[in-house]
Amino acid sequence: MAADLSQIVKAYDVRGVVPDQWDESTAELFGAAFAEVTGASAIVTGHDMRPSSPGLSGAFARGAASRGVDVTEIGLCSTDQLYYASGALDLPGAMFTASHNPARYNGIKMCRAGAAPVGQDTGLAEIRALVERWIESGAPEPVAVPGTVGRRDTLADYAAHLRTLVDLTSIRPLKVVVDAGNGMGGHTVPTVLAGLPLTVVPMYFELDGTFPNHEANPLDPANLVDLQDRVRAEGADLGLAFDGDADRCFVVDQRGEPVSPSAVTALVASRELARNGGRGTIIHNLITSWSVPEVVRENGGTPVRTRVGHSFIKAEMAATGAIFGGEHSAHYYFKDFWNADTGMLAALHVLAALGEQDGPLSELVAQYDRYTGSGEINSTVADQAARIAAVRAAYEGRADVTLDELDGLTVTAADWWFNVRPSNTEPLLRLNAEAKDEALMAKVRDEALAVIRG
Questions:
Q1: Is 391 helix (H, G, I), strand (E, B) or coil?
Q2: Which residue range or ranges hold the Alpha-D-phosphohexomutase alpha/beta/alpha domain (predicted)?
Q3: Is 99 among the residues known to form the active site?
Q4: How far apart are CA 333 and CA 132, in angstroms?
Q5: How far apart are CA 397 and CA 55, in angstroms?
Q6: pLDDT per residue over 19-48, tens digit each?
Q7: Where are the domains of the chain?
Q8: Domain 154-370 in CATH: superfamily?
Q9: Tens digit of pLDDT for each residue in 134-166?
């Protein structure tokens, strides 16, 4: 099969339908190209529970071994478990997952040693160019001495490392409902939470890459409904929902109400600053709540605002020596985790913060959730640039606002802000708005949408 790589190589990863858009023969070429571009003598690989994942991962390992590279396969794992292995073993890594995408998709998230990201500007373009050349001219001849392919289980070590980064020794007993969505949280949660004073109520822990219960995408409110109902029915203290590859974690409080990822970011930021003597840089993307930089400053830290996307966050983490970073999409990045994102570590922080005091989660997070947000609202447009220009024209003459173009267009006033930015992959504009109260947010949101939608 001659794969069209323009359809599957994205800004930060490889992703497409199997076997329609790519298959094991393509994966083998990606493994060989990854070996060439990283120049590594050894790499580590892992995969999620999708039916196609073991075959694709194995083919990638064969491709890398054909270039003389030794491969350590850690098998079934979450994406942050793969990052752990890359960091702890100091090896480049490749994770086979399509995260929250439907079952017929699969993909590769690649990193250099120490979990440093591989994106278009950091090796992915070169990997794609090699694979395209080999698709046309044939794969290179294997080297005289191929690499070895071995197995290693890192789950216990990954869990132990996370447990060293959060003090859970003094928490009170808690009842927590966990919705793994038939994804990799069902594999990692039992080991990470073992031995804690928790009553864990598991939902959809059976590993099943066909996602028989609901999509493993907690960002969509429809996929949180089962968890919300179960938290209320159980009288639980909180609920946790993981996406398919378990690198993102969403939280609901004891009432079954979602806790915004911005509030989780602010809570974890305050705890990480306390761990670091009340000093440190905290990264947040430009559509996280105003609450985040406010809480960071109140706790002695320095907030730094970035574009949306993990490559920008990780680059800024490295450049500034930041101790923590958070995004509105529930990606949480930790200096002590090689600047990589781990929803599991953020979940442990929430459990620790709740368990260290007697009040309910809704009261605890209220101090970190000070404004009203719209959530992300998508509008299909024929011409993204023209519609953003129309928004700029509508607001740039006003004395009460400032405009900036760090990522799309952000319009800021004393009591509100909104950001509109284009999707990289679809003819959409994404709007996020926030204000001091619900009525003002609705007004700002509706005025912006009227211009966007023309």
A1: helix
A2: 7-133, 157-256, 264-371
A3: yes
A4: 33
A5: 57
A6: 999 999 999 999 999 999 999 999 999 999
A7: 5-153, 154-370, 372-452
A8: Alpha-D-Glucose-1,6-Bisphosphate, subunit A, domain 3 (3.40.120.10)
A9: 999 999 999 999 999 999 999 999 999 999 999
